[in-house]
Design brief:
The protein is 9% helix and 42% strand. The chain has 2 domains: 79 residues; 42 residues, no CATH class. The strands form 2 sheets. Strands 4-3-2-1-5 form a 5-stranded antiparallel beta sheet. A 4-stranded antiparallel beta sheet has the order 8-7-6-9, with no helix packed on it. The protein has 1 helix and 9 strands; from the N terminus they run βββββββββα. It has 128 residues and is mainly beta. Strand 3 and strand 4 form a beta hairpin. The chain is elongated.
């Protein structure tokens, strides 16, 4: 399948090292799909072979990412103590701190990655 035929948000069957089905992400030049590991299934970005990756679309499915569903493996981080979204104000190799995005207060708690479970379910139904 020619790269000019790929549409952002469309679902494709893939010939990839890790993915068999994925949503084309035009910005990142790859496919977001479910990587099936022995330990767990998780969302994964596999780059298109024409952009240095290991996946290539073979068939365009009649399925598109819903407009309100983010095309991202992760949705952010949550503070474990306060169950609030957190962010980091530093840059690479510069000091900074974690803070609650709702009120700007510093957060010293452990953090949990928010996985995009809705996208995972959407893709799992297409693979079934």
């Amino acid at each position: 399948m020619d790269s000019s035929e790929l549409l952002h948000g469309r679902v494709y069957r893939l010939n990839g090292e890790y993915l068999t089905t994925g949503v084309w992400d035009d910005e990142r030049r790859g496919y977001v799909g479910i990587k099936h590991d022995a330990s767990a299934d998780r969302l994964y970005l596999e780059y298109d072979i024409r952009y240095g990756g290991t996946a290539m679309a073979t068939v365009a499915l009649d399925a598109y990412l819903p407009a309100d569903l983010p095309l991202s493996e992760f949705l952010g981080l949550r503070c474990d103590d306060h169950d609030e979204e957190v962010d980091y104000n530093g840059r690479i190799n510069e000091p900074g701190y974690w803070f609650h995005t709702s009120n700007g207060m510093r957060c010293t708690s452990t953090r949990t990655v928010l996985r995009n479970e809705t996208l995972h379910r959407f893709l799992a139904e297409l693979e079934a």
